Predict the 3D structure of the following.
Amino acid sequence: MNDKQMMCAIEAILFAAGESVELNRLAQALDVTAAKAEKLAEELMNSFNAQEHGIKIKRYRDSYQFVTEKEYADQIRIVMDLNRNKPLSQAAMEVLSVIAYNQPVTKAFVEQIRGVDCSGVIGSLTVKGLIEEQGRLELPGRPLLYGTTENFLRCFNISSVDELPPIPSQEGKPADTAETPSEAQE
């Protein structure tokens, strides 16, 4: 197979899969190295996405997938009779942010940052497929470590957590030199 045929094969695989396909699986299917498969997949993605289509190819970590363009979401929902999912609560967004920016983290770490129990929120984010268990910490009790999933990347339309916006710097005084309420009244 020449490069053009292999790119067509990648396109067909991504279309047929309906979900993301890992780079090593593409390489295996094409009987090429992972580096060659990545070069072909990137070339296909750049070529395909440069054209005007209702779908595009998106990379998530080391996987590729066909995804729809955001601007056609309403029409897709009508045809597929999809209802919008209930948006995440403020607590869920806070927990998700702590995990996304600091992963992998333990539940205790998230609770220390937030100051409240996060068991229920972590459970619901796991059920929604936005976070997952990513091993255990080598400490007494071996607490679970949590990190974001490929579904998280898909939902936030980013390719990796490196694309998350920077955390805004704290404006004003640092927390350890903040005024007490009595000082502020003087």
